[in-house]
Design brief:
The protein is of the alpha+beta class. Helix content is 17%, strand content 30%. Strands 1-2-3-8-5-6-7-4 form an eight-stranded antiparallel β-sheet, with no helix packed on it. The longest helix is centred in the first third of the chain and has 19 residues. The chain is elongated and about 55 Å long.
């Protein structure tokens, strides 16, 4: 998840998106074919493929994720949780809350949240409320949540060009 949301171009090694484990060949002419059966015969591999597909869709849909704009607003070293926002020049943004811990956090309070209001969890489409610059979320082990502010017009304006300077 984090790979699709940090500055720069994400890189997937051939077959990563459906669980193929292969090593780089010694020469560029040595064949290293993809094992498409992994995708066709295993539900786990299909789930992994759909996971990558969904996060790639997030990256394509929200231009802010493809810019160099990033602001870290929450850091909890003990819990191993980090919060940051990515946005573009018109203020379209996505908030990411990442759990780097092997332990999940139920009812975790994310402080310094960028904006109050209703937010949509990208993975579950559930609505989460931020109030007084805090949001309470559940963070399974080693996961990230992408949160998009919910507006009637569907436009997410968190920052203006002036705020981004």
């Amino acid at each position: 998840q984090i790979q699709m949301t940090v500055p720069g171009i994400p890189l997937l090694w051939m077959g990563d998106e459906f669980g193929q484990h292969s090593h780089k060949t010694k020469t560029t002419t040595e064949p290293n074919p993809l094992n498409w059966e992994l995708l066709e015969k295993s539900e786990l591999n299909k789930d992994l493929y759909n996971f990558y597909k969904r996060w790639i869709q997030l990256r394509k849909k929200f231009k802010g994720i493809r810019t160099d704009n990033v602001e870290f607003f929450h850091e909890n070293i003990e819990a191993k949780v980090l919060g940051y926002i990515r946005w573009d020049e018109v203020g379209d943004g996505v908030v990411l809350v990442v759990n780097f811990n092997g332990v999940g956090h139920d009812g975790y309070v994310v402080g310094n949240f960028p904006a109050d209001g209703q937010w949509v969890d990208w993975d579950t489409n559930s609505v989460v409320e931020a109030k007084d610059h805090m949001m309470t979320v559940s963070l399974p082990p080693y996961t990230a949540k992408a949160l998009i502010i919910k507006t009637e017009s569907g436009v997410c304006l968190l920052y203006t060009s002036d705020a981004a300077d």
